[in-house]
């Protein structure tokens, strides 16, 4: 107790308060005596206030608790202090002193009176859900995810095992109901952890769900698909089914690439995206299935029936972005996803024989890997690629397919390289300089870089204004107009 | 404050024997005899003299004073050589005496305390833990004496040096204590009042006690002795000294453990049979349904009643407490609940319950209380903005009664008169009740679901009609926040308890309490009526649970062991076991028959606010603001004690040795569990308010 800072009101504080109340020369002894008394009373009241907090069944002390404690001591409460959840104390230091203070703005009453009334808050309502059914917590959105993400991540736990919901502290009941053991739950009997036999069994409900979701995802109804994807992206209880979904995606891509069914490939990629968006899932274990599928969608020679008309470029872009995300989220020293993917991409680029669409995919994939990759791998290649594009666009053989491919490659390179160049290359931008540095693409690139620079400047400006705006939002008067509640 | 203080102090000096209880006399008498041979007798005499002189002076007995001075060869007037500057300045005998009392060597308190603690450290392991309990009360009283005698600096030093050595669960009180730094502040401080006016109770085996006596004989610490005599009550028992776990299990309460004799009274915890329901009840049934069913049921019912008749020699006679007579509706109610009970799912460690959780969404103000009616059809939530809201949990929507003129036209002989009285047009899912002027801390439905009780920070208990959704009665009396209120299982009576440390028993038709249950040292935080309506259990922030007899208002059980305020209680359906829990995150299970602690259930990570036994009593559910419902296997404990019904271990308060009792733990997303309730069919209902992160 002694090494803690004593929470005392100091005599100086009392003097400051006295001054603000108009008492100029407070003797030191008086200030000290007052300070001691103030400390005592504050502590007393705070202790009473804690009782109110406990009875309010909260973890946080509120100003209302303090008011009630004052009332208990027969002191007039401090009316008009309305506590929000968060009281923004600001920190200031100077003159060797540190201070926390609550910034109170002067409030223009007129503004409040003239302001439109806030919306009437929703009425209190009561909603029921099953927290447990015969001792098993159902995986519904109302319940927390059955297995916290950390646990899914834990290496020793085999994937797809239904684990019993356990408390945060990880204490598990010693003996599990016998019924549960039959299902293959991990059981701890007398402290010995037995690894259960794995049975990848889905319940009937889960099987139904799987069917519904997969049908909706690749079906023709767009609204159903949206719902299904929404469910995949938000439902907390899906970890058991990821193996099925990843296999579904993997197989789906394999079949549809052969059949060049662009639409289905897009749907499958959207499923992957939804699964990645689900914060309660951990996909790492299934990357061996998912990554080849996604990579296929980036790099495959042919993804659609009519390469000259269909926009398979969008799919490649989308899949490349997914891959980029995966590299960012899951790449580790062990799996080295990012470096392996980068190698794959560069190998394709080195191969002079590679198909144009594949080249496009490789370039898109590299472009999505982040600024560093663009800087070190893409920009040095600009000259070479520029020549290739030039050859295709202006070459003797006029192949419309090749031409569109060249156009797309050019657009891609410009789009991704310009912002990076704008950052790493000092201005001013000289057309000639660019031409010598980057060859054919130089002049166009220069124009894009100039544009990118302007955009960046604008963004900076906007950022400053928005933070100012945000600050002004924060500093808005916090007086609240009490809601008039009408008895139904 | 001043008065009890001074009386204590005065008696200390003048009349030891009268204040010291039997067990402590032994301590006191032996050193008394050797007082003269103490270390500095001359100083002591001088102080005594000074005190007597002061007394004479104050009472204007000048001649006597002069004579005494002459005799003692003391100089006149204020030039006292007694070394106490305080004698001259203080005008009151009491303060002189108290100065005298602790004048000895205030500065040496640290030394005394150190000596005591090293004695305890070095004593035999067997005694160590029992003796260790001495340290805290001795510490407290030494500190208070230092403060009382205006040795603020020493007090501060003393506190900082030794407060860290005290057990964790004392830190809350120590924090309160640490704010008290001057004598003025001692006045009006509740905790100080308690410490100065009541004795701290310790239980000790005779062996440990003997070793303490030896220590006291060897070391002439007069201060220590006087503290032990005046402020401690040492309850000596014959038997093996308790070990660390046993001592810890029952320590923690504000004023030490329960005295042994406090839990001696026989408690009639059994459930009375329900004889007179039998005949009229069946009539009722036939009247209501009139088909084949009732016959079958009658047989079953008879069986049930027969079983009941044999049971429970421990049940109180039915006439012990005048209970409201059962109305026809009540009887019907009982039959219905019994019928529901037939569909009950047996629960146990193999069959965990299903939990249906009700979440209050969009609550503009925090929810501070939730109550569920006995038959699980109604739910009432109390809000911190003083509102109470009643919901129906069944398909039956909530209706008010028709107005007077419409009621007048009804045929009052009709069978379904109650139904007809209700106005279908007013049916709503929920009703809002306005009336309180502070946060509502408890809600309780009457057993017939016609009334609702609420208690609030504004110091009142209000009775609401659930026919008209209006306030019927305001019960004033507590003047301070009322933390809990509960209807008796038979209706009519109810008990409230609050910040004024008193639990009051009321009848709904009287505006003054029928009984006052006084004895807690701090706020009465929770109340649970015994299933047989003859007893009331209360939990308090003095960290004890007490059981009161409704018949005479006596406290019949004091149970210590909680390390922080108790916030919830639950009776097992058979009325023998009581579970309690609160801020210390532990659930304790008590055997009311002997007032002993049976089991401790740890696992929650935040204060617990709700407990409930399943209908057959095999499972206990607990929930708190750690957003978790935990299920405990109490059947295991009951089996264990049934196996070894060892009455001799009564004094030793040994925990039943069973492994972990936790059966399941179910977490909500972000909803604290404020209320748990088992329906007749053993479906567990939970309720709380969703909290945005």
Automatic annotation (TrEMBL), chain A:
Pfam families: TAF, TAF6_C. Its main location: nucleus. GO terms for molecular function: protein heterodimerization activity; RNA polymerase II general transcription initiation factor activity; transcription coactivator activity. InterPro entries: ARM-type_fold, Histone-fold, TAF6, TAF6_C, TAF6_C_sf, TAF_TATA-bd_Histone-like_dom. Residues 7-73 form the TATA box binding protein associated factor (TAF) histone-like fold domain. Belongs to the TAF6 family. This is Transcription initiation factor TFIID subunit 6. Residues 137-182 are annotated as: Disordered. The keyword rRNA-binding does not apply. The gene is TAF6. Keywords: Nucleus, Transcription, Transcription regulation. The lineage of its organism: Eukaryota, Metazoa, Chordata, Cephalochordata, Leptocardii. The keyword Cell inner membrane does not apply. SUPFAM superfamilies: ARM repeat, Histone-fold. One of its GO terms (cellular component) is transcription factor TFIID complex. It is found in: Nucleus. It comes from the Eukaryota. GO terms for biological process: RNA polymerase II preinitiation complex assembly.
